[in-house]
Request: fold
Amino acid sequence: MMTTASLVAFFAKPDILVGSLRGLFRKDSRQKSDVLDNIELPLRVSFIGIPIVGAIVALMAHFFFGVALWQGLVAIPLIFVFTLIAVNSTALTSITPISALGKLTQLTYGVLAPRNVTTNLITASITAEAASNAANLLMDIKPGYMLGAKPRQQAIGHALGIVAGALAAVPVYYLVFLRNGPDQLITDQYPMPSAIVWKSVSEVLTQGLSHLQVSARWLALVGGVLGIVLEIARLATKDRFWLSGVGIGLAAIIPFNTCLAMFLGSLFFWLMARYAKNEKAFAHRIFVKNLEPTCAGMIAGGALMGIVVIILENFVF
Reply:
């Protein structure tokens, strides 16, 4: 359901696909000089960096996960195309279709590397992560300008953040999630819904439908068709249809307490928007005008406390 709904939403806007490629090759002959030359990262950095970094990524995928070198290198042009699509989609709709782009990579490698789940997952992760980070950097441009940072400085900071994040996140990942072995990676405490979806799609594409139970095949078909129908209904009614195929699919694979928290949060902010209409009131300013930052702060705070609790449980108590 999540896969088909994501793909329908993605391909329902062909102008994003066409505009991405058209914008790449279109050049305004009237513009003699680029006013952004001194504030953006020079294009030569990309021309030189992409082959070097691409080769390093392909080598890492080969040595760490057994991905064939040629298959890792094929992911590099896919990154280029998917990044164009991702940034255009983000700029036009504020939505980055990472799930749909990842599934397209999985479809590609389902043909190039049949019956190889690891290659299917790793290459999809490479393309999706690169496109996601490009779109995230695009969303940082305006806040960066407001704080006095040029795009060149933001790109450098983004690259430094990749290194710092890897140095911090990888040890924590191994200590917290792989401490009891890879079989304990996905648990009731850490359901990892996105990972489950990607893994399931990879298994179906690489191993075929024959390894699934008959009931699972029928349910996959029903869920796929339902995802298409729900997404078409949403598009046809211009978002007035309230059921989301992605939302329902996600709710089916995350714990009930998470679903309940999401429902209560949505209900609370909907009530605030409906009844706290006085623009000068504290409730309106916090829960209506600043809904996104308030929610982002709650999510970030909850995530940080969750990490603290995990560390205490594993190393203190």
Residues 254-317 form one domain. The chain has 13 helices and no strands. The chain has two domains: 2-24+38-246, 254-317. The longest helix spans residues 117-146.
